[in-house]
Amino acid sequence: MTDQHRHDTRLDRFVDSYSQRTEGMRVSAVRALFSVANRPEIVSLAGGMPNIKDLPLHHIADSLAAMIETNGTKVMQYGSGQGEGVLREQIVHVMALEGITAHPDDITITAGSQQGLDLVTRIFCDPGDVVLAESPSYVGALGTFLSYQCEVVHVPTDEHGISPTALRETIDRLRAQGKRIKFLYTIPNYNNPSGVTQPWDRRLDVISVCESEGVLVVEDNPYGLLSLDADPIPAMRSADENVIYLGSFSKTFAPGFRVGWVLAPHAVREKLVLAQESATLCPPVFSQYAIADYLTNNDWRGQIDIFKDMYRARRDAMLLALAEEMPEGTTWTRPAGGFFVWVTLPEGLDTQAMLPRGVDARVAYVPGPAFYADGQGARNARLSFCFPPPDRIKTGVRRFADVVRRELEVMNTFGVSHSPTLSRPAPGPSANLT
Ligand SMILES: Cc1ncc(COP(=O)(O)O)c(C=O)c1O
């Protein structure tokens, strides 16, 4: 690779040694602002961290202490590359809540579903292969696909998720260009960042297009059990055993254990285990037993209900505040679960350029372009309702609305909103965001 292609600095003495793969890894242009955003006076509607304040910590601590006392030499030892059998059996019951029938043998445990994404991309994708994704899509997945030098192509979506017609057109267009499509990556429940949920019929239509076109479906479902209005819609995997399904305990229990899983057809599962062994030897054994212990000794479904009540109050506070505060011409999604609302500002506004003014006004959000691999999303922002309490959410949305109103005034006076004070990042997702 020649120097002029590299974005790195000459001050790095290894600049000529990095793999081409590292070119797909992007530094966040807004990371500096996020460290500011953590200041207490700022309401952060940016982070997507699960709010685990209501976990029964004493009970969990006692249970883990007893587990170490009685089984320490086993739970702190290396384990199976596929993951521990006891947990895989429990995961079968977790997935049954979303209509999935599965066998523990077809499950591979991963270090969070993020590692599931990595392993799936690793076993399927060569540089230049195309991954299809919703528009917008999860920043961490886009980062993984780009780090394997895939081309991410966003499929147009509407209020019900991926448009089946647009999906077929996109596949046909890419194939006519000689491109190799490896899979469709989709988040059918409470998409991060859009909050959109695909209804059941839409799921079936998307599966049927992919089946007839020979495109694999990768379903990522970390938020499925956090349905705030109705029972969860059955997973896509429940309708088709060829769908590769990614699950996680990060949102239904706690992300720090880093335990997720991939459910895949048998042959794919074999490749996943080989990839897992070369990546980590085995997924974190202590964490797996800790989760298995939690599922055995706690009312984990009751705990999910507690989480849901807490998130529902926050979601409702955000939707009400948006309705009361946002200037005309702004629209937003109304998520039935998960953590996120996706806001679309009037034409001409630029959420990336606006962010420093937001932080000045003591509110932080994630600008839309982070969720696209191709620079779209200038008018969009992701607001998360999972963390601040309802009154802080209200304050945050009021501040956000004030900033938008001021931008609109400037635009109406001068024809453009403020000139950007942040240098524009290269298109693509920024790292370190959930
Ligand atoms: C859609 C989606 N997929 C995957 C992940 C990764 O989750 P984890 O690796 O903690 O399971 C996240 C985290 O926010 C997410 O939003």
Give your account of this protein's structure.
This protein is α/β, with parallel strands linked by helices and 434 residues long. The protein has two domains: 20-54 and 303-411, Aspartate Aminotransferase, domain 1 (Alpha-Beta Complex); 57-297, Type I PLP-dependent aspartate aminotransferase-like (Major domain) (Aspartate Aminotransferase, domain 2, 3-Layer(aba) Sandwich), CATH 3.40.640.10. Helices cover 41% and strands 13% of the residues. The chain contains twelve helices and 15 strands. The chain has helices at residues 31-37, 57-75, 85-96, 112-124, 139-147, 164-176, 200-213, 266-280, 285-297, 300-325, 351-360, 390-414; strands at 43-44, 107-110, 130-134, 151-155, 157-158, 161-162, 181-186, 216-220, 244-248, 260-263, 331-332, 340-344, 363-364, 366-367, 380-384. The protein has a seven-stranded mixed β-sheet with strand order 2-10-9-8-7-3-4, sandwiched between helices. Strand 11 (331-332) and strand 12 form a beta hairpin. The longest helix has 26 residues, at 300-325. Residues 420-432 have low confidence and may be disordered. Pyridoxal-5'-phosphate binds at residues 48, 112-114, 138, 140, 187, 192, 220, 222, 248, 250, 255, 260, 434. Pyridoxal-5'-phosphate binds next to helix 4.
